[in-house]
Amino acid sequence: MIETERLxxxxxxxxxxxxxxxxxxxxxxxxxxxxxxxxxxxxxxIGYGLGKKxxxxxxxxxxxxAMCDWAIEQENVLHIxxxxxxxxxxxxxxxxxxGFVEEKCGDTIWWRK
Length: 113
Description:
By secondary structure, the protein is α+β, with helices and mostly antiparallel strands. It has helices at 59-72, 89-97, and strands at residues 16-21, 28-34, 43-50, 79-85, 101-105, 108-112. It is built from 2 helices and 6 strands. The chain has a 6-stranded mixed sheet, covered by helices on one side. Residues 1-113 form the N-acetyltransferase domain. Keywords: Transferase.
């Protein structure tokens, strides 16, 4: 659905940001990123956003899973982490579908895979 094949071509060298383009009509539906290089605990943080009218089509689940699959294969990554708002239920469901577990809850929720 989304061009994930070209999403993950470069090693983790810092903040990387991609537009998510729907294959059928080449429309930008959202964006995704690795927020920095892996930290000392060998964790890398992902971020993502999707345009409202493109929600509930599985696009972001596909992208997050592709990012995680690729990142975990890198020699300096043991875990992927993400942060959501406490009321960001759609984002939380995406992370849960991709195998993340809630690690810490406060003003925001931190997730880990």
